[in-house]
Amino acid sequence: MNFKGRDVISIEDFSLDEIEHILNVTKEVEMYPEKFKNEMAGKIMSPLFFENSTRTSSSFQAAMLQMGGRVLDFDIATSSVNKGETLRDTVKIIEGYNPDFVIIRHKRDGSAKFVADLLDVPVMNAGDGQNQHPTQTLLDLYTIKELRGSLDGTKIVLAGDLKYGRTVHSLALALSKYPRCEMVFISPDSLRMPKYILNELSKKGVSFQEKGLEELELSIRSFPIIYMTRIQRERFPESLEGEQEYEVISKVYRLSLEMLKNVNHELKIMHPLPKVGEIEESVDETNFAHYFQQAKNGLYIRKALLILLAGGKDE
Ligand code: NCD
CATH code for 11-132+298-309? Predict the structure, then answer.
Protein backbone atom coordinates (compact mmCIF):
# COMPACT_ATOMS: atom_id res chain seq x y z
CA MET A 1 0.00 0.00 0.00
CA ASN A 2 1.47 3.31 -1.03
CA PHE A 3 0.12 6.75 -0.15
CA LYS A 4 3.22 8.88 -0.75
CA GLY A 5 2.55 11.86 -3.01
CA ARG A 6 -1.08 10.94 -3.63
CA ASP A 7 -3.99 13.35 -3.80
CA VAL A 8 -7.17 13.02 -1.75
CA ILE A 9 -9.87 14.18 -4.17
CA SER A 10 -12.68 11.66 -3.94
CA ILE A 11 -13.42 8.89 -1.46
CA GLU A 12 -13.79 6.70 -4.53
CA ASP A 13 -10.01 6.94 -5.03
CA PHE A 14 -9.50 4.63 -2.04
CA SER A 15 -10.13 0.91 -1.70
CA LEU A 16 -11.65 -0.55 1.44
CA ASP A 17 -8.21 -1.81 2.53
CA GLU A 18 -6.69 1.63 2.03
CA ILE A 19 -9.45 3.27 4.05
CA GLU A 20 -8.92 0.74 6.83
CA HIS A 21 -5.18 1.48 6.78
CA ILE A 22 -5.88 5.23 7.12
CA LEU A 23 -8.21 4.51 10.07
CA ASN A 24 -5.55 2.33 11.75
CA VAL A 25 -2.88 5.00 11.37
CA THR A 26 -5.40 7.51 12.76
CA LYS A 27 -5.86 5.37 15.87
CA GLU A 28 -2.11 5.30 16.42
CA VAL A 29 -1.89 9.07 15.93
CA GLU A 30 -4.67 9.61 18.46
CA MET A 31 -3.12 7.28 21.04
CA TYR A 32 0.53 8.30 20.69
CA PRO A 33 0.70 11.97 19.60
CA GLU A 34 4.27 12.28 20.96
CA LYS A 35 5.51 9.75 18.43
CA PHE A 36 4.58 12.05 15.56
CA LYS A 37 5.47 15.43 17.01
CA ASN A 38 8.30 16.06 14.53
CA GLU A 39 6.81 14.23 11.56
CA MET A 40 6.16 17.44 9.59
CA ALA A 41 9.41 19.23 10.49
CA GLY A 42 10.57 21.35 7.54
CA LYS A 43 7.27 20.91 5.70
CA ILE A 44 4.80 23.59 4.65
CA MET A 45 1.08 23.32 4.05
CA SER A 46 -0.78 25.79 1.89
CA PRO A 47 -4.50 25.96 2.76
CA LEU A 48 -6.64 27.58 0.05
CA PHE A 49 -10.10 28.05 1.56
CA PHE A 50 -12.28 29.88 -0.96
CA GLU A 51 -15.37 29.00 1.10
CA ASN A 52 -15.99 29.47 4.82
CA SER A 53 -14.59 26.88 7.20
CA THR A 54 -14.01 26.48 10.92
CA ARG A 55 -13.36 22.80 11.68
CA THR A 56 -11.73 21.67 8.47
CA SER A 57 -9.30 24.57 8.20
CA SER A 58 -8.48 24.73 11.93
CA SER A 59 -7.97 20.98 12.27
CA PHE A 60 -5.70 20.84 9.19
CA GLN A 61 -3.66 23.71 10.63
CA ALA A 62 -3.55 22.21 14.13
CA ALA A 63 -2.50 18.87 12.64
CA MET A 64 0.38 20.47 10.79
CA LEU A 65 1.54 22.67 13.69
CA GLN A 66 1.33 19.87 16.29
CA MET A 67 3.64 17.75 14.14
CA GLY A 68 6.26 20.48 13.76
CA GLY A 69 5.18 21.74 10.33
CA ARG A 70 4.32 25.23 9.16
CA VAL A 71 1.29 26.74 7.47
CA LEU A 72 1.13 29.47 4.82
CA ASP A 73 -1.37 32.19 5.42
CA PHE A 74 -4.27 32.53 2.97
CA ASP A 75 -7.28 34.69 3.67
CA ILE A 76 -9.85 34.89 0.91
CA ALA A 77 -11.02 38.26 2.26
CA THR A 78 -7.61 39.90 1.70
CA SER A 79 -6.34 37.83 -1.25
CA SER A 80 -6.15 38.90 -4.88
CA VAL A 81 -9.11 36.62 -5.63
CA ASN A 82 -11.12 39.71 -4.74
CA LYS A 83 -9.40 41.55 -7.59
CA GLY A 84 -10.64 38.89 -9.98
CA GLU A 85 -7.64 36.53 -10.08
CA THR A 86 -8.51 33.09 -11.44
CA LEU A 87 -8.14 29.84 -9.51
CA ARG A 88 -5.56 28.66 -12.04
CA ASP A 89 -3.36 31.75 -11.52
CA THR A 90 -3.69 31.66 -7.73
CA VAL A 91 -2.64 28.02 -7.65
CA LYS A 92 0.27 28.56 -10.06
CA ILE A 93 1.60 31.34 -7.83
CA ILE A 94 1.30 29.23 -4.67
CA GLU A 95 3.14 26.38 -6.41
CA GLY A 96 6.12 28.69 -6.90
CA TYR A 97 6.49 28.99 -3.13
CA ASN A 98 7.08 25.22 -2.82
CA PRO A 99 4.44 23.98 -0.39
CA ASP A 100 4.51 20.26 0.48
CA PHE A 101 0.70 20.02 0.60
CA VAL A 102 -2.14 22.08 -0.81
CA ILE A 103 -5.57 21.93 0.82
CA ILE A 104 -8.42 23.34 -1.25
CA ARG A 105 -12.05 24.21 -0.53
CA HIS A 106 -13.99 25.88 -3.31
CA LYS A 107 -17.62 26.35 -4.31
CA ARG A 108 -17.11 24.73 -7.73
CA ASP A 109 -17.66 20.98 -8.17
CA GLY A 110 -14.47 19.45 -9.54
CA SER A 111 -12.24 22.32 -8.34
CA ALA A 112 -10.02 20.03 -6.23
CA LYS A 113 -9.40 17.76 -9.22
CA PHE A 114 -8.65 20.82 -11.36
CA VAL A 115 -6.03 21.97 -8.85
CA ALA A 116 -4.55 18.49 -8.41
CA ASP A 117 -4.10 18.22 -12.18
CA LEU A 118 -2.17 21.50 -12.17
CA LEU A 119 0.17 20.61 -9.30
CA ASP A 120 2.74 17.93 -8.56
CA VAL A 121 2.43 18.19 -4.77
CA PRO A 122 -0.31 16.28 -2.88
CA VAL A 123 -3.64 18.09 -2.98
CA MET A 124 -6.43 17.39 -0.51
CA ASN A 125 -10.06 18.21 -1.25
CA ALA A 126 -11.56 20.03 1.75
CA GLY A 127 -14.94 20.26 -0.01
CA ASP A 128 -15.66 21.01 -3.68
CA GLY A 129 -19.09 22.57 -4.14
CA GLN A 130 -21.85 20.03 -3.76
CA ASN A 131 -19.65 17.18 -4.87
CA GLN A 132 -17.45 15.55 -2.20
CA HIS A 133 -15.73 16.05 1.15
CA PRO A 134 -13.48 12.99 1.51
CA THR A 135 -11.52 13.99 4.63
CA GLN A 136 -14.81 14.62 6.46
CA THR A 137 -15.96 11.17 5.39
CA LEU A 138 -12.82 9.56 6.76
CA LEU A 139 -13.41 11.18 10.14
CA ASP A 140 -17.06 10.11 9.97
CA LEU A 141 -16.00 6.53 9.30
CA TYR A 142 -13.45 6.72 12.12
CA THR A 143 -16.17 7.93 14.51
CA ILE A 144 -18.64 5.23 13.45
CA LYS A 145 -15.95 2.58 13.94
CA GLU A 146 -15.15 4.02 17.35
CA LEU A 147 -18.85 3.91 18.28
CA ARG A 148 -19.71 0.43 17.03
CA GLY A 149 -16.40 -1.38 16.59
CA SER A 150 -16.72 -2.04 12.87
CA LEU A 151 -18.06 -0.47 9.70
CA ASP A 152 -19.44 -3.74 8.33
CA GLY A 153 -23.22 -3.84 8.60
CA THR A 154 -23.59 -0.15 9.53
CA LYS A 155 -27.25 0.89 9.63
CA ILE A 156 -27.56 4.63 9.26
CA VAL A 157 -30.11 7.34 8.54
CA LEU A 158 -28.75 10.25 6.50
CA ALA A 159 -31.04 13.25 6.91
CA GLY A 160 -31.38 16.80 5.68
CA ASP A 161 -29.99 18.31 2.52
CA LEU A 162 -28.97 15.23 0.57
CA LYS A 163 -28.90 17.09 -2.74
CA TYR A 164 -26.34 19.80 -2.00
CA GLY A 165 -24.63 18.24 1.06
CA ARG A 166 -21.22 16.99 -0.05
CA THR A 167 -20.55 15.15 3.23
CA VAL A 168 -23.43 12.73 2.69
CA HIS A 169 -22.42 12.07 -0.91
CA SER A 170 -18.94 10.93 0.11
CA LEU A 171 -20.23 9.06 3.16
CA ALA A 172 -22.85 7.05 1.25
CA LEU A 173 -20.25 6.08 -1.36
CA ALA A 174 -17.72 5.13 1.32
CA LEU A 175 -20.16 2.95 3.26
CA SER A 176 -21.17 1.20 0.04
CA LYS A 177 -17.69 -0.38 0.04
CA TYR A 178 -18.46 -2.19 3.30
CA PRO A 179 -20.60 -5.33 3.39
CA ARG A 180 -24.19 -5.39 4.65
CA CYS A 181 -24.64 -1.64 5.17
CA GLU A 182 -28.19 -0.27 5.21
CA MET A 183 -29.09 3.35 4.62
CA VAL A 184 -32.25 5.42 4.94
CA PHE A 185 -32.24 8.80 3.18
CA ILE A 186 -34.57 11.39 4.71
CA SER A 187 -34.99 14.71 2.98
CA PRO A 188 -37.53 17.13 1.54
CA ASP A 189 -38.58 16.03 -1.92
CA SER A 190 -36.59 18.86 -3.52
CA LEU A 191 -33.36 17.86 -1.75
CA ARG A 192 -33.14 14.12 -2.41
CA MET A 193 -29.91 12.17 -2.83
CA PRO A 194 -28.63 12.62 -6.43
CA LYS A 195 -29.50 9.88 -8.89
CA TYR A 196 -25.87 9.08 -9.74
CA ILE A 197 -25.23 8.12 -6.11
CA LEU A 198 -28.40 6.02 -5.87
CA ASN A 199 -27.40 4.27 -9.09
CA GLU A 200 -23.96 3.55 -7.70
CA LEU A 201 -25.47 2.09 -4.52
CA SER A 202 -27.89 -0.06 -6.54
CA LYS A 203 -25.02 -1.31 -8.68
CA LYS A 204 -23.22 -2.45 -5.55
CA GLY A 205 -26.35 -4.08 -4.14
CA VAL A 206 -26.56 -1.73 -1.13
CA SER A 207 -29.88 -1.69 0.66
CA PHE A 208 -31.40 1.83 0.87
CA GLN A 209 -34.75 3.59 1.18
CA GLU A 210 -35.79 7.18 0.50
CA LYS A 211 -38.26 8.88 2.82
CA GLY A 212 -39.76 12.30 3.49
CA LEU A 213 -38.99 14.55 6.48
CA GLU A 214 -42.15 13.39 8.26
CA GLU A 215 -40.51 9.96 8.70
CA LEU A 216 -37.61 11.32 10.75
CA GLU A 217 -39.10 10.45 14.14
CA LEU A 218 -40.07 6.93 13.17
CA SER A 219 -36.73 6.21 11.53
CA ILE A 220 -34.67 7.07 14.59
CA ARG A 221 -36.66 4.52 16.56
CA SER A 222 -35.55 1.68 14.33
CA PHE A 223 -32.06 2.75 13.20
CA PRO A 224 -29.05 3.00 15.54
CA ILE A 225 -27.29 5.99 13.92
CA ILE A 226 -28.65 9.23 12.51
CA TYR A 227 -26.40 11.57 10.54
CA MET A 228 -28.05 14.98 10.44
CA THR A 229 -26.96 17.68 7.99
CA ARG A 230 -27.52 21.39 7.56
CA ILE A 231 -29.75 22.70 4.77
CA GLN A 232 -27.15 24.24 2.43
CA ARG A 233 -28.83 27.61 2.01
CA GLU A 234 -25.90 29.12 0.09
CA ARG A 235 -26.28 26.50 -2.65
CA PHE A 236 -29.99 27.18 -3.23
CA PRO A 237 -30.95 29.04 -6.41
CA GLU A 238 -30.88 32.79 -5.75
CA SER A 239 -34.56 33.40 -6.30
CA LEU A 240 -37.58 34.26 -4.23
CA GLU A 241 -38.79 30.66 -4.60
CA GLY A 242 -35.42 29.36 -3.39
CA GLU A 243 -35.61 31.63 -0.35
CA GLN A 244 -39.19 30.64 0.43
CA GLU A 245 -38.39 26.96 0.04
CA TYR A 246 -35.56 27.32 2.54
CA GLU A 247 -37.85 29.01 5.06
CA VAL A 248 -40.47 26.26 4.80
CA ILE A 249 -37.97 23.41 5.12
CA SER A 250 -36.03 24.91 8.01
CA LYS A 251 -39.23 25.23 10.03
CA VAL A 252 -40.14 21.54 9.84
CA TYR A 253 -36.70 19.94 9.82
CA ARG A 254 -35.76 19.75 13.49
CA LEU A 255 -34.62 16.99 15.82
CA SER A 256 -36.00 17.82 19.26
CA LEU A 257 -35.40 16.43 22.75
CA GLU A 258 -39.04 15.39 22.77
CA MET A 259 -38.49 13.11 19.74
CA LEU A 260 -35.74 11.29 21.63
CA LYS A 261 -38.08 10.13 24.41
CA ASN A 262 -39.07 6.96 22.61
CA VAL A 263 -35.78 5.95 21.00
CA ASN A 264 -33.35 3.24 22.00
CA HIS A 265 -30.90 4.72 24.50
CA GLU A 266 -28.05 3.46 22.27
CA LEU A 267 -29.02 5.84 19.40
CA LYS A 268 -26.05 7.86 18.12
CA ILE A 269 -26.58 11.30 16.61
CA MET A 270 -23.88 12.52 14.25
CA HIS A 271 -23.52 15.78 12.29
CA PRO A 272 -20.60 17.18 10.27
CA LEU A 273 -21.37 20.64 11.73
CA PRO A 274 -22.05 23.53 11.57
CA LYS A 275 -25.58 22.94 12.82
CA VAL A 276 -27.91 25.88 12.46
CA GLY A 277 -31.09 24.94 14.29
CA GLU A 278 -31.83 21.46 12.90
CA ILE A 279 -30.89 19.92 16.26
CA GLU A 280 -32.43 21.43 19.38
CA GLU A 281 -29.63 22.74 21.59
CA SER A 282 -30.68 20.69 24.63
CA VAL A 283 -29.83 17.53 22.65
CA ASP A 284 -26.13 18.51 22.87
CA GLU A 285 -26.10 17.62 26.58
CA THR A 286 -27.48 14.11 26.09
CA ASN A 287 -25.52 10.90 25.58
CA PHE A 288 -27.04 10.66 22.09
CA ALA A 289 -24.86 13.51 20.77
CA HIS A 290 -21.58 12.50 19.14
CA TYR A 291 -20.92 15.45 16.84
CA PHE A 292 -18.35 17.16 19.02
CA GLN A 293 -16.40 13.91 19.30
CA GLN A 294 -16.67 13.67 15.50
CA ALA A 295 -15.19 17.17 15.05
CA LYS A 296 -12.32 16.27 17.39
CA ASN A 297 -11.57 13.17 15.35
CA GLY A 298 -10.97 15.48 12.39
CA LEU A 299 -7.63 16.42 13.92
CA TYR A 300 -6.44 12.81 14.07
CA ILE A 301 -7.65 11.93 10.58
CA ARG A 302 -5.91 14.95 9.06
CA LYS A 303 -2.69 14.20 10.92
CA ALA A 304 -2.80 10.64 9.60
CA LEU A 305 -3.40 11.83 6.03
CA LEU A 306 -0.50 14.29 6.18
CA ILE A 307 1.80 11.56 7.51
CA LEU A 308 0.73 9.07 4.85
CA LEU A 309 0.96 11.49 1.90
CA ALA A 310 4.44 12.49 3.08
CA GLY A 311 5.48 8.83 2.81
CA GLY A 312 5.33 7.80 6.45
CA LYS A 313 3.54 4.68 7.72
CA ASP A 314 3.37 2.95 4.35
CA GLU A 315 2.78 -0.80 4.50
C1 NCD B 1 -19.46 20.67 6.01
C2 NCD B 1 -19.04 21.19 4.64
O3 NCD B 1 -18.31 22.17 4.54
O4 NCD B 1 -19.45 20.55 3.69
N5 NCD B 1 -18.71 21.24 7.04
C6 NCD B 1 -17.58 20.62 7.47
O7 NCD B 1 -16.57 20.61 6.82
N8 NCD B 1 -17.64 19.96 8.64
C9 NCD B 1 -20.90 20.70 6.26
C10 NCD B 1 -21.67 21.96 6.05
O11 NCD B 1 -21.13 23.02 5.73
O12 NCD B 1 -22.89 21.90 6.22
Answer: 3.40.50.1370
Q: Ligand 1: which of 273, 279, 291, 296 to mutate, most ligand atoms within 8 Å of CB? A: 273
Ligand 1: distance of its center to the CA of 42 in Å? 30
237 CA to centre of ligand 1 in angstroms? 19
Question: In testing the pocket of ligand 1, which one of 56, 58, 161 has its CB within 8 Å of the most ligand atoms?
Answer: 56
pTM assigned to the model: 0.97
Rg (CA), the chain: 19
Atom of ligand 1 nearest to the CA of 126: 7
Q: Please report, in angstroms and rounded to a whole number, the separation of the first and last CA atoms in the chain.
A: 5
What residue's CA is closest to ligand 1, atom 11?
A: 274
Q: Rounded distance, CA 312 to CA 209, Å?
A: 41
- Rounded to an integer, what distance in angstroms lies between the CA atom of residue 160 and that of residue 111? 24
- For all residues of the chain together, what is the average pLDDT? 96
Q: Kindly tell me if the per-residue pLDDT of 103 is higher than 70.
A: yes
In CATH terms, 134-295 corresponds, of 3.20.20.70, 3.30.565.10, 3.40.50.1370, 3.40.50.300, to 3.40.50.1370
**C-alpha distances in angstroms, 117 versus 15, 92, 110, 123, 129?**
21, 11, 11, 9, 18
pLDDT tens, position by position, 49-64: 999 999 999 999 999 9
Residue-wise pLDDT for 175-217, tens only, equals: 999 999 999 999 999 999 999 999 999 999 999 999 999 999 9
Nearest CA residue ID for atom 8, ligand 1:
272
pLDDT in the model for residue 315: 65
**Which residue has the least CA distance to atom 1 on ligand 1?**
272
